[in-house]
Amino acid sequence: MWIASDxxxxxxxxxxxxxxxxxxxxxxxxxxxxxxxxxxxxxxPSWKKLNGHYHRSKSGGGEWEFMxxxxxxxxxxxxxxxxxxxxxxKHTGLFPEQAxxxxxFGGLIKDAAPKREIKVLNLFxxxxxxxxxxxxxxxxxxxxxxxxxxxxxxxxxxxxxGLADAPIRWLVDDCVKFVEREIRRGNKYDGIIMDPPxxxxxxxxxxxxxxxxxxxxxxxxxxxxxxxxxxFLINSYTTGLAPSVLTYxxxxxxxxxxxxxxxxxxxxxxxxxxxLVLPCGASCRWTGK
Length: 289
Hints:
2 domains, 17 strands
């Protein structure tokens, strides 16, 4: 498992009975987590010192209960700064486990950037965690997401991280249609990142269902990789989509076309109170020749 263990402003303190207890900077949040199917004693005092609690409804969805939590605050990861705010369906605007991937591709970019321009495409880019990490490492980034609000939030994170003037192209667009247009234009990228949702809709109501679309989309996006591409990264939070499945898909698309190496694994976050690691989905990493 790849573990995001370098955080100082974030930690999973404990987890039990379907919920995880987290520290985001100085604030303590309690949120649902489908991986937490065990019931263990809640001995840590932070269980009783919450600033926010997302209560899941039995009929689906849920709502926040706030106890002295600001509408927005920020946390740091190394040289990056992220603006957080609780919004619908339990999220805060950041997936901290992805830091382990930021470090991975950031190292590849830093090693290559002094010798040549590195162009990175971030698809389903959300609030831009990977975008700002790639830009900070020295890449020229194209950020694509179907939500105008998420792209605006990502721009705020770039500014907070000292990247207001960085070469980032911000696009509100359907990712599939954007990739199709980029292929027609003949554009190429040295690194591609994708974090596709299990289910979603594009700006014009386009339906995305991961199991039905992901293989053909990887196959399509492979056509945007440059001849001397550095990396390809795909993340999955879909229950049941094992790391080995990601490996098979990328092996039959990217590796088939470019060679290189592919490896997939779970990603996770350490639990500070008991030494466990909380699983947080899976990632597949391809590196070039």
